[in-house]
Amino acid sequence: MLKTCANPWCRQPFEITEDDREFSEKISPVIAGKTIPIPPPDHCPDCRQQQRLSFRNERKLHKRTCDLTGETIISMYPAGAPFPVYSTAGWWSDKWDARDFGRDIDFSRPFFEQLAELCIKVPRLQNVGTSDMKKMNSEYVNFAGWNKNSYLIFDSDYNEDCSYSNVIKHSKDCIDCSYVSGSQLCHECVDCTDCYALDHCQRCGNCNTGIFLLSCTGCSDCAFSCNLVSKKYCLWNEQLTKDDYTRRLKQLMDESTMDDLMERFHQFSLAYPRKFCAVVQAEDSSGDYITNAQRCSTCFNIGEAQDLRYCDSVYRAKDCMDVSSFGEGIERVSNSGTIGHGSAGIHFCFDCVSSCADLLYCLQCHQTKNCFGCAGFRSGNYCILNKQYSKDEYETLIPKIVEHMRSTKEWGQYFPLSMSPFPYNETVAQEYFPLTKEEVLKRAWKWKDESDEIPKVDRIIPANQLPDSIDQIPDDILNWAIECDATKRPFRIMKQELHFYRQMHVPVPRLHPDERHRRRMALRNPRKLWKRECAKCHKSMATSYAPDRPEIVYCEECYLKEVY
What are phi and psi of 294, to 5 degrees? Predict the structure, then answer.
């Protein structure tokens, strides 16, 4: 069935296959033994993902007070938010109960209108993460857990002494990294696993002591090279002796600025083929950044998964459709975001984790089951709009609510963007679906202009006036602010950060952390597939490299023959 996206600014055609319909029926919710079918979507996959991501603010943090205890906290919600915000310890305490805000369903009004009113009253958790972040000296994190001595890392777990990064796992002493795991002493790295002492590297695994490497595996002491496997002392893909490598690399680094090196390596890398997608051990699957998956269609950043459709950032999952950032250890989830840790049977929900089950239209619920339209539960069962019901009352009322939502054309839709507590440009949606302020306001969505407090420092120095060598950077820089080369926004250098740059012998950054993040994310391919021919065998393939991009793109078979 071919449909047209219902969003007037989109109107793109998209297909709902017979397999899609059968899959929706398979995972549809069951109440009192009767299946409540999930209707086919009205919006294209991109618009559905955009709407889910618009509820997730990862990187914008604010200093404010807890509305329960009065203590100062770091939160993703600013002071003056229209709902109460509690510290992590306060939110999990027994000093309040989400049922205190319960209300009856009103069948004369749209459901989303009633749910929005409830969400304004129920306290919200300051950030998403573990409760010991303050004790672990990691207050400035979000969607993150079990981190020690870390600062401004997001969607990241089990790290130590890491800063200015996102999606890093089980790593130590890493700064300005994205999608890095099991690594140490990495700087400006993207999509690297089990690496040590790398700088400006991408798509590398089991490498150590390298700078400017692309798609290298098992290499050490290599620089400015692509597609190497188990190599040592290579420069510009040329095999050298140890002495020649050390001498020529030092000469290159002494004679060039970092910007010159970045541009030179980029041009050099275009002569080497890319694999059509970063897919490893995937059967009957399409998308990018996929590992150990079976029957996963149009998915991105997934691993250990079976039978997924239109999902992103989902791991150890089964039988899910339209799930975004993130899902872990989940099953039978549809059109939801941030679902995890053993949850199943979740539909049209956001931030419901910790063994939740059989939820519909719920937000920020934990260890909760059999609830519809609830918010802020730590443990609930058979509740609607936070009001407690018996099992029989609940199962009798749910079909009536669904029928009411069908009449208002709400059933099967995700939460409207008017319910998102964040300006669009502060959410993950802006990263993957960037819009101008004018475009956002035209759609009646929220926008917030960027503003920085003037830092209380001895001086503000333009980045282009900084010495190129880290050896020439004085300790006094800790008392300065640097004016970003690109955005003119001021930023500061931390003591542990300066120690890292000296240890790695890399220059002090010239760009604001937000701009560094934006440029790293731009190195990753978009969450979109195009039809393109392999540049060698001309076989048709679905790839995340657009046909008009300059890279040489090979199918998997041709790429493996070229590299190995």
Answer: -130, 130
Which residues neighbour 388 within 8 Å (Cβ) at sequence distance 6 or greater?
99, 102, 382
Note whether 213 and 204 are within 8 A (CB).
yes
Strands (E), 240-285: 274-275, 279-283
What distance in Å separates the CA atoms of residue 112 and residue 412, rounded to the nearest whole number?
12
H-helix or E-strand containing 37? none
Q: How far apart are CA 456 and CA 452, in angstroms?
A: 12
Residue found by looking up tokens 């100062």 in the block: 72
Per-residue CA distances from 111 to 123, 309, 429 (Å): 20, 27, 25
> Between the CA of residue 301 and those of 187, 241, 310, what are the distances in Å?
21, 38, 11
Q: Give me the residue label for tokens 């027994």.
A: 94
Q: Has this prediction a pTM greater than 0.90?
A: yes
Question: Each residue of 380-396: pLDDT tens digit?
Answer: 999 999 999 999 999 99
For 93, 369, 389, 401, the CA distances from 108, given in Å and listed in that order, are: 36, 27, 21, 11
Amino acid letter, 233: Y
Domain ranges in the chain are 156-275
Helices 111-121 & 391-407 angle (0-180, nearest 10): 120
Instruction: Report the DSSP beta bridge partners of residue 384.
Output: 372, 387
Question: Residue 394: what residue type?
Answer: Y
Token digits of residue 156 = 């990241």
| Burial tier of 226 (Cβ tally within 10 Å: 0-12, 13-18, 19+) | buried
Binned at pLDDT 50, 70 and 90, residue 131 comes out as confident
pLDDT > 90 fraction of the chain, expressed in percent and rounded: 95
Give 340's pLDDT tier (boundaries 50, 70, 90): confident
Question: What pLDDT, in 10s, does the model give residues 5-52?
Answer: 999 999 999 999 999 999 999 999 999 999 999 999 999 999 999 999
Structure tokens at 455: 């830092």
